[in-house]
Amino acid sequence: MNNAFRAVFIKEMVANFRDHRTLMSALLGPLLAPLVFVVAINFELSRALDGSENSLELPVLGSEAAPTLISFLEQENISIHPITKDRADTLAAVDKGSLDLALVIPKDFGTQLRSNQPVRLEIIVDLSNTKVHAQVTRMRSLLRAWEQQISALRLVSRGINPVITHPLLIDEIDTSTPSGRSAVILGMLTYLFLLAMLMGGMYLCIDTTAGERERGELEPLLALPISRSNLVVGKIAAGSMYMLASLAISLLTCMIALPFLPLEKLGMNANFGPAVAISAWFILAPFALLGSSLMTIVASLTKSYKEAQTYLSFVILLPTLPILIAALMTLRPSPELMLVPSLSQHLLITELIKSHPIEPLWVVISVGSTLLSSLALVWVAVRAYRREGILI
Amino acid sequence: MIVVDGLAKRFGNVAALRSISFSAANGQITGLLGPNGAGKSTTLRALYTVLKPDSGRAHIDTINVIENPLAARSRIGILPHGVGLSQHLTGRANIRYFGRLQGLNGPSLEERIEQLIQQLDIHSFADRKAKGYSQGQKTKVALAQALVHEPPNVILDEPTNGLDVMTTRALREEILTLKQTGKCVLFSSHVMQEVAAVCDEIVILAAGLVAACGTPDQLREQFGHDDLEEVFVAAIRSVGEPQT
After folding, report:
1. How big is the CA angle at B106 (ends A23 and B177), to the nearest 5 degrees?
2. Do A224 and B98 touch (CB under 8 A)?
3. How far apart are CA A282 and CA A294, in angstroms?
4. I need a surface site. Which of A315, A390, B158, B227 has the fewest CB within 10 A?
5. ipTM
6. What's the pLDDT tens digit per position in A212-244?
7. What domains are there in chain A, each with its CATH number?
8. Chain B residue with minimum CA distance to A10
9. Which residue on chain A is closest to B41 by alpha carbon?
10. What pTM value is reported for the model?
């Protein structure tokens, strides 16, 4: 290995390791990002799961008018709390939030039912309160079930087979595997990994280019008897190393944190063990070179540390674009799509998490095309450093 | 030995160098003197090959800097204007970095670093992070970086800017030591007294041209003034206003 390249590489690795800002973004970001993700998803999931099997506390106004309905609900694990207030007070109570929801049964429930008139029931709810959505859905389906019992009884009493009211029987057969279902949520993880990876090298890339020039360190370096390509490639290599380390940390955090998600309760299964984490690292690794060279180019074209910071916070969002398009078009992996960096990594990792088989050819194309684009970017970075304007 | 012949350089519409020719001999200190914007830094930058002149030639120890920049750079040590150090490395590590980039390594490099640390009086802060260095400490370490490979030619761009009296004096002594070891020292300044204090040869630049050059005595004679500052002013006036 070339001496100058090695000297630059080691110097940037060591100097940036002592820089708190670079180190924080390289270590803490990848550590926290998956944790925040898991906590947020966990919160959403447990909310959605809430109330599906637990008993539901249901305040009911006028419960004495419908004893059969009430006993049906009680059998379905609903505990009824009769309300003594009138309808207007109940509305106000839900509006204020002192009640989550309430069922209002009219006084003439029994007479209306007996005279075969439709009876109006009211579920009073504030739908802007997202945590009651599951309870309302459950209430609705219970009331429908009771309604079907009554209508079946009415038909039977008139000598009609209730089956004739059901011309269709609809069965949904879901072919997705449990881990396939979780892929929707876990698909976001690819972006999380790419983000953590780019974050890990961002401050190094700024510091070794715009920062170095701003502090007056660049000029004596350019007057040394070394070629500028060694200088640039040494910096890019150091940036890639930081990105690879950040990637490993974020994958490891994810591997440890994901089992805490209640995915099984949704019939999902997170296939994210050590084997998947290691494969994911190798699939994403070529992207580190691409990210590092792209950031080095952009940062070296800016005038100052601050300007570089501004531009790079946009650059960090670039890999989302192909992923976003993939999500909108529900793309499936194909050899052509493997030519697109970031998209190919996203598709491969999604397949990996779904426990689908991965074609070796896809991996070869993905790694090959990402490395080739990286080499093109390295070449551009070297060109950028050969300009006279690099000093100004 | 540095020879500059007819260097010219434009930045857009501005002619930074119109035609600069001079030579700096070994074992001598040559001062590049001129007001701000005269072309001192541009000349030096062309010499250490970070700028490419539009026309003209420059040789360092008979190596053409335009045709063979790598070989030319290996024979110079430079201290640019406003030089900085890597903040998170110690002074010693900063010198070591440049030594490695010059192709030195192992015990011989460590020996050379130790020698420079003694010679330039760096030891009291050599093992501290460069982040907290004063301007004087920074300049000393940057000079050690420039000298680590024992270059036969040393180029310093406004080295005493922002330095206190004691550091300026120490730097002056260091420049004289370099001269005594037979090196070719080229340094720029906009302060006449400073140049007069150490230089054997003075090259006065104004508006991208050489207004005058020679030993201090020759210049005094040429312009008919005993006071070198008057000589400086007269030389600049002789060139006229900068042209574009």
Report:
1. 100
2. yes
3. 20
4. B227
5. 0.92
6. 999 999 999 999 999 999 999 999 999 999 999
7. 3-45+178-391 (no CATH), 55-165 (3.40.190)
8. B97
9. A219
10. 0.81
